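Handoff note, outgoing to incoming analyst
You'll be picking up this chain. Sequence as last confirmed:
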Amino acid sequence: MVAKKVLLRFSNSLISKPIVYRLVKDYNLAFNILKAQILPDEEGEMVLEIEGDRACYEKGMAFLKDTGVEVLNIDKRIVKDEERCYHCSACTVVCPSGAISIDRETMRVGYDPEQCIVCELCVGTCPPRAMRVEIV
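Most recent structure output, in case you need it:
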């Protein structure tokens, strides 16, 4: 069994095609859309967590590449350095996935790496540089 996060980039000519649907139908893969930005007549991007049998996963990724979809493995993660964080909450404003939140009772910033889509927006926004990218 394989479970990986991938970034898919579609050209504008592929946006109207049911490409992701084929991962389920033809390759028996399950996916969770973590982030998507797909607009008519523009390039589209999706961050997916894809899960399935290793052989099916490899065939599905080969299908995507053959179709013209750029597939990038997300082989990094965001780490929060608790000692550096002074809970200013600047990072909570830019986090699109809700992985970073503020506890209204304690006013402390919390981070859930399971929800993180590794967009890296928090890294540049964090004044004390408590959020950083780590290669997995």
